[in-house]
Amino acid sequence: MDKQQSFEEIQERLEANDLRLTPQRAAVVKVLLDHTHTHLRTEEIFLLAKEFAPDIGLATVYRTLEILERLNIINRFDYGDGQSRYEMGRDTEEHYHHHLICLGCGAVSEFEDDLLEMLEDKIASKCQFKIVDHSLRFFGYCKKCQMNNRG
Amino acid sequence: MDKQQSFEEIQERLEANDLRLTPQRAAVVKVLLDHTHTHLRTEEIFLLAKEFAPDIGLATVYRTLEILERLNIINRFDYGDGQSRYEMGRDTEEHYHHHLICLGCGAVSEFEDDLLEMLEDKIASKCQFKIVDHSLRFFGYCKKCQMNNRG
DNA sequence: CTTATTGCAAAAGTTTTGCACTATA
DNA sequence: TATAGTGCAAAACTTTTGCAATAAG
């Protein structure tokens, strides 16, 4: 159901904004395309990108991720542990998947749901607040950790 | 409707856990009690606590906030900007208020709702994930910023 | 007297920035 | 040849930690 973006589409989107798809930026994009449905930390992206562009610098990765986020090509996630995580955007579907973060083992799974649409409408009319995005995270214990008595 | 904790109750809670309510810790608690319904950054708490305990160190503030969070006396919030924010806990009511974060002026307002209870039940049964907490943030533009064409 | 707590400074960790160099249109 | 982009190192920033000094039971 996901409308996955292709490498070519991303290249076009960059060039439409007068940004070049340099080898370094391409390396970052390739890493993200190779790891859909995973939330990569910047350091992980950096290390993986080195396989495509060995001389890439960490600063370039940060700068590239900032660009990709600004163009809505990727989404940034914050688990509250002081590190940003990134994932390829999934257009509108993206809006309605939430994160289940396990306090036992740190695993992150997803839950698809559109219940929040109702809530957003409610907020928009009650508070006159124009919502453009949201972030919903659930903290708890996954099945495995519950069995291991960690929850 | 909020069941506000008193200074004495907090003292009892600390002592029940073999923790002393030192002047420094008392200063932090006073700051938090004086700023209910506000999400203070650690640095702000540090500066405000200095009025009660001039010699308090930043490390002590961090250590105190960690203790208070562990005892569920305060709640930690993460707006995704790399800084933690804190607020006095409001027991069970706390669970069902969400944050509206304005991308124009940075103002944070709250929205009370219990729709998420349904969603939590759904997740618990579908994913066998035992939820203990959640965080829901909406990003958008407040009424004022919409009028100022910032949204 | 024994343990908890503190302040300070240093360290750790992520992210940003300055700048000279390089690649590209 | 202008300009965009890069790598490196340094800086910025929040948070944590080691440790000697202090306070409290």
Description of the molecule:
Two copies of one chain form a homodimer. Chain A has 151 residues and is of the alpha+beta class. Chain A has helices spanning 7-15, 23-34, 42-49, 58-70, 91-94, 116-127, 143-147; strands at 40-41, 74-78, 84-88, 97-102, 108-112, 130-141. The first copy, chain A, has a three-stranded antiparallel beta sheet. Chain A has a three-stranded mixed beta sheet with strand order 5-4-6. In chain A, strand 4 (97-102) and strand 5 form a beta hairpin. The two termini of chain A are 33 Å apart. The model of chain A has no long low-confidence stretch (mean pLDDT 84). At the A-B interface, helix 6 and strand 6 of A face helix 6 and strand 6 of B. Strand 6 of chain A pairs antiparallel with strand 6 of chain B, so a sheet runs across the interface. Chain A binds a DNA duplex (25 and 25 nucleotides) through residues 18-20, 22, 24-25, 42-43, 55-60, 62-63, 82-84.
For the terminal residues of chain A, how far apart are their CA atoms?
A: 33 Å
**Major beta sheet summary of chain A:** 3 strands, antiparallel
Greatest interface and its participating residue counts:
A-B, 37 and 37 residues
- The helical percent of chain A reads 40-55%
